[in-house]
Write a structure and sequence with these properties.
This protein is of the alpha+beta class. It has helices at 13-20, 72-86, 150-154, 160-180, 182-192, and strands spanning 3-10, 29-36, 55-62, 95-98, 102-105, 108-120, 123-133, 199-204, 207-216, 222-225, 231-234, 240-241. It has a seven-stranded mixed β-sheet, with helices on both faces. A five-stranded antiparallel β-sheet has the order 11-10-9-8-12, with no helix packed on it. The longest helix has 21 residues, at 160-180.
Length: 243
């Protein structure tokens, strides 16, 4: 059964669950906050969110059925769960997943996901899924990711709690699919993958290169071909999308 914990202010919902993991069974905990004072994005990036305007939360899930070498499957499942909800709000042809798991709307960042997992032996254990989804915020700093919110797109104001519960429900459905039919998750991820099977410009080691995206390898690395048909695999921070 899900346990919801809400804070007016917290350093980071992911960090809170990581601390609690040493003293409690946090599986199926959902921790949300009106404001994170140290919210994190991918790598060393911070996450901008106006207090009380957006969804900033973390969900702890039991992943002990998944081999550690396949842990990137979770990074495919989570954005698909969120998109299932967003598809009922926005034109789904304008929503896509920018590798590894950002959700974008017409080249602008709508949601970010940060996953911290523990591993036992060769299997995954508990994964803490941190999500920032821009909902009612109307102004952002000029980040390179060009943030956008639901309200900026639709001019509607959204009730955060029902939306939170819907998203958590759909993420858990996708996690169950990883156990039952993982191939479906992989296929659906590629269908929504931004720039899949297209040519585009990227920045690699300070240089702009034109590459063709062919997919994702089993370790979650981005696979691309250059114009000489040479294959390259990139990990996070080795390549930057030019939007």
């Amino acid at each position: 059964m899900l346990q919801y914990h809400h804070f007016d202010e917290i350093d980071s919902t992911n960090a809170y669950l990581q601390r609690k993991h040493s003293e409690a069974d946090i599986r199926n905990w959902v921790v949300s906050a009106n404001e994170q004072t140290a919210g994190k994005g991918m790598g060393s990036n911070s996450w901008e969110s106006e207090a009380g305007k957006n969804l900033t939360f973390s969900l702890a899930v039991d992943m002990n059925f998944l081999p550690a070498e396949k842990q990137f499957l979770l990074s495919k499942a989570v954005p698909l769960g969120i998109i299932d909800v967003l598809d009922d709000i926005l034109p789904n042809e304008k929503l896509s997943i920018k590798w590894p798991n950002d959700i974008i709307y017409e080249n602008r960042k709508l949601a970010g996901i940060l996953i911290n997992s523990t591993i036992k032996a060769n299997m995954m254990d508990v994964s803490i899924i941190g999500i920032g989804l821009n909902i009612n915020q109307m102004q952002f700093k000029d980040w390179p990711t060009h943030p956008i919110s639901l309200k900026q797109i639709t001019s509607e104001t959204y009730d955060l709690q029902p939306l939170l519960e819907q998203i958590v429900e759909h993420i858990l459905i996708k996690v169950k699919q990883l156990n039952d039919t993982p191939a479906v998750i992989e296929q659906d991820y590629l269908k929504r993958l931004f720039r899949y099977r297209t040519w585009a410009d990227y920045e690699v080691e300070g240089k702009i290169v034109r590459l063709f995206m062919t997919g994702i390898d089993k370790f979650g690395r981005l696979q691309l071909l250059d114009e000489q048909q040479k294959m390259f695999c990139y990990e996070i921070k080795q390549i930057r999308f030019l939007l």
